[in-house]
């Protein structure tokens, strides 16, 4: 599904943030990425999704056999790459539901599927809302406008559930959630899990991984993946912290 | 090896849409023009061409004498290249033997032009529920659905025809809202206007279709000065629409129109404009100078006038559709979207003059600036001493795209009655890179993302437009912003 080789990227001021990332995620797998603040996790998510402001100086990213870095951000999205934002963006005046329908139809068109009419769309929305226990009132507001931190994160998962991506990258979707919201988010992620899809979860906490059990856990520190292991690695980190990996930078 | 993470970041909307100004073509048609320049002889020439009665010639000459004494206004926040009024041509008409009596007699070249513009004049193909008066250069070339409207007593025709057939009505109302000496451009228009549209809706009649005028400037070096007069008699209702385009030419062309609306007791006029004059090229070359005076009088009690405008074209827009709220309980509304991209400049807004008791006005202005565009909202709310319990609500929002454009909000509020309640809200926002990225990450193209955000910003205004045109206006907004993000 996704193969990252020796990926180096820098930001506008020339500072190199990613210093040679190697990571392979097979179809059907769930990988967790953990690591200290400022180690480059969001930068990696940004580079994979095509966020402006980063320059790739070395390395390659292959997604479903294609050169991912050659695609614009919207082309990547239409090819099935979804990023749940660490900080979801507010778009005043744009109705959340209307936004989602525009997004879904553009993704569907790229998959060779027909647009959903208003009725079909509403039906699909209701099914997902039920799964995620989200109230309909959220849909009639501006995109993320006035949403609480937790509501924003739920909305990201709701969008993911609707768009059904092949590769979902979740950047700290579990941060700032209460216990019920965390369970709901986990349910959304687990519902997406399947042999055709891959999920990369960036997280600081073991508790999400209790609900969504990862196949692999990686530690990103100083712009490199310094350790990889099975799900027990997350538990180990919870006890020992990142001290042992701090010098990688 | 060095490669940006997003190779396509540099793609512009122009690449995506590849559209540009769609209406820039020129129609090859033989026309008859006055010699360039402006003097009493030219005014008399125009009046004679139109076989006008003496009173109208005198009215024009009076306006011309006013105009000669007046100076161009320079208070607007606009940089305008000097206009040589003696170099322009003040009359140009498609040449033909006699005025067409029916659509079958209209020059096929002209019909084709309007078809290309998406305004079929053939009644069978015409937009359902819209009667169109097509004005080409200075002359009305066709009016559709006239007979159907006549059955209800509604008069909808070219201004010239109105002068001939309904002279008393024209004489009674012409200049009663915008006097000939009102301002420099209105005076110029009053002297040289050559055609336009006229509508009269009799008492108690609800006009069953949209009345629409479609203005087209074709000839080079020609100003367009049309005159619109709409009268809604007691208890009547009419919705009126105005659209405009012009060929793409390198020199600036002057457009100075006057629109007068009169709403008698209990009448309502809804006037919508989708202004898409040629805006000039990306370097600011060419484009229409749009200096327009639009004003409505709510003369009777319980009357209402509502202006909705979507201003996307023109190199320069100078325009303040206004309401004079004379009748008690009368209502004035102004809903506006103005876009400036590249080097376009707009200084637009409204005046709400409250004279009667319990008069209410609402102003919603949405200014969008992109490229190096400059957008100014200028609005006056005046509450006169006799206007007990007058209310005004004003909302002015500006949206900036990029960092080389400008937005300015200049509200003037004059309250001369202590019972008045006047509210003003203003915001300025910017489309952020994060918003664009968020939309694109959800699969929307840059073009769709921009259009979504801009339409969201304008939706309170767009919802005021008649359905058929709301869709058109949305597309137009997207095209107008081509190349503004990249
Ligand atoms: N666009 C940017 N402009 C300036 N600095 C940036 C930018 N993006 C990332 N950085 C810097 O790069 C480093 C890595 O940031 P990144 O957001 O990837 O960390 P992170 O691992 O996601 O941290 P956290 O756990 O706090 O979310 C930080 O020092 C950050 O300040
Ligand atoms: Mg982060």
Explain what you see.
The complex is a heterodimer of chains A (about 250) and B (about 475). Chain A is an alpha/beta fold and about 250 residues long. Chain A has 8 helices and 12 strands. Chain A has helices at about 40-50, 75-80, 95-110, 120-130, 150-165, 180-190, 205-210, 230-240, and strands at about 1-10, 15-25, 30-35, 55-65, 65, 80-85, 90-95, 140-145, 165-170, 200, 215-220, 225-230. In chain A, strands 6-9-10-3-11-12 form a 6-stranded mixed β-sheet, with helices on both faces. In chain A, helix 4 crosses helix 5 (about 150-165) and helix 5 (about 150-165) packs parallel to helix 6 (about 180-190). The two termini of chain A are about 30 Å apart. Chain B has about 475 residues and is an alpha/beta fold. Chain B has one domain (about 5-430). Chain B is built from 11 helices and 24 strands. In chain B, the strands form 3 sheets. In chain B, strands 6, 7, 9, 11, 12, 14, 16, 17, 19, 21 and 23 form an 11-stranded mixed β-sheet that branches. In chain B, strands 5-4-8-10-13-15-18-20-22-24 form a 10-stranded mixed β-sheet, with helices on one face. Chain B is globular. The chains are: A alpha/beta (about 250), B alpha/beta (about 475). The interface of A and B includes residues 47, 76, 77, 102 and 110 of A. Adenosine-5'-triphosphate (ATP) binds near residues 42 and 43 of chain A.
């Amino acid at each position: 599904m996704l193969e990252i080789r020796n990926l180096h990227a820098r930001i506008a001021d020339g500072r190199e943030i990613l210093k040679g990332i190697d990571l392979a995620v097979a179809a059907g797998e769930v990988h967790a990425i953990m690591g200290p603040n400022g180690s480059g996790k969001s930068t990696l998510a940004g580079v994979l999704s095509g966020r402006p402001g980063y320059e790739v100086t070395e390395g390659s990213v292959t997604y479903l056999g294609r050169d991912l870095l050659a695609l614009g951000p919207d082309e990547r999205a239409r090819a099935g790459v979804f990023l749940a934002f660490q900080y979801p963006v507010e778009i005043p005046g744009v109705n959340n539901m209307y936004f989602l329908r525009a997004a879904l139809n553009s993704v569907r068109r790229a998959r060779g599927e027909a647009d959903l009419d208003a009725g079909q769309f509403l039906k699909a929305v209701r099914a997902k809302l039920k799964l995620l226990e989200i109230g309909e009132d959220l849909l009639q507001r501006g995109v993320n406008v006035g949403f609480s931190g937790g509501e924003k994160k739920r909305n990201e998962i709701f969008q993911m559930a609707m768009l059904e991506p092949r590769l979902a990258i979740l950047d700290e979707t579990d941060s700032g959630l209460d216990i019920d919201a965390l369970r709901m988010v986990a349910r959304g992620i687990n519902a997406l899990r399947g042999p055709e899809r891959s999920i990369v979860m960036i997280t600081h906490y073991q508790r999400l991984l209790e609900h969504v059990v990862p196949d692999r856990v990686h530690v990103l520190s100083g712009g490199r993946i310094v350790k990889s292991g099975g799900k027990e690695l997350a538990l180990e980190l919870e006890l020992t912290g990142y001290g042992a990996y701090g010098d990688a930078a | 090896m060095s490669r940006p993470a997003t190779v396509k970041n540099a793609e512009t909307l122009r690449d995506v849409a590849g559209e540009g100004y769609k209406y820039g073509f020129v129609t090859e048609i033989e026309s008859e023009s006055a010699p360039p320049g402006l003097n009493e002889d030219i005014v008399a020439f125009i009046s004679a061409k139109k076989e006008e009665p003496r009173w109208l010639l005198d009215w024009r000459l009076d306006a011309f004498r006013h105009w000669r004494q007046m100076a161009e206004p320079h208070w607007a926040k606009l940089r305008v290249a000097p206009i040589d009024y003696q170099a322009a041509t003040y009359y140009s008409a498609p040449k033909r033997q006699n005025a067409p009596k029916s659509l079958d007699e209209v020059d096929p070249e002209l019909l084709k032009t309007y078809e290309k513009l998406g305004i079929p004049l053939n009644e069978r193909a015409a937009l359902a529920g819209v009667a169109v008066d097509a004005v080409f250069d200075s002359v009305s070339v066709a009016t559709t659905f006239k007979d159907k409207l006549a059955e209800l007593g509604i008069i909808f025709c070219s201004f010239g025809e109105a002068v001939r057939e309904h002279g008393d009505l024209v004489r009674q109302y012409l200049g009663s809202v915008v006097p000939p000496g009102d301002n420099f451009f209105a005076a110029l228009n009053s002297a040289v206007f050559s055609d336009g549209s006229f509508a009269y809706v009799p008492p108690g009649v609800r006009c069953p279709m949209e009345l629409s005028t479609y203005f087209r400037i074709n000839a080079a070096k020609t100003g367009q000065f049309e005159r619109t007069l709409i009268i809604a008699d007691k208890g009547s209702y009419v919705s009126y629409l105005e659209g405009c385009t012009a060929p793409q030419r390198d020199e600036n062309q002057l457009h100075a129109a006057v629109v007068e609306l009169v709403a008698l007791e209990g009448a309502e006029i809804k006037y919508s404009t989708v202004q898409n004059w040629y805006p000039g090229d990306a370097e600011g070359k060419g484009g229409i100078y749009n200096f327009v005076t639009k004003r409505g009088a709510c003369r009777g009690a319980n009357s209402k006038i509502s202006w909705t405008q979507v201003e996307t074209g023109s190199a320069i827009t100078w325009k303040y559709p206004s309401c004079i709220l004379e009748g008690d309980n009368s209502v004035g509304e102004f809903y506006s979207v103005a876009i400036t991209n590249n080097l376009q400049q707009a200084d637009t807004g409204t005046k709400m003059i409250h004279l009667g008791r319990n008069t209410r006005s609402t102003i919603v202005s949405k200014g969008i600036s992109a490229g190096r565009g400059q957008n100014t909202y200028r609005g006056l709310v005046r509450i006169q001493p006799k206007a007990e319990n007058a209310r005004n609500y004003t909302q002015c929002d500006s949206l900036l795209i990029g960092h080389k454009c400008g937005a300015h909000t200049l509200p003037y509020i004059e309250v001369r009655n202590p019972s008045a309640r006047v509210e003003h809200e203003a915001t300025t926002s910017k489309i952020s890179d994060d918003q664009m990225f968020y939309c694109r990450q959800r699969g929307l193209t840059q073009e769709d993302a921009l259009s979504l955000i801009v339409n969201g910003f304008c939706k309170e205004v767009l919802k005021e437009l008649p359905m058929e045109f709301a869709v058109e206006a949305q597309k137009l907004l997207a095209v107008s912003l081509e190349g503004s993000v990249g």
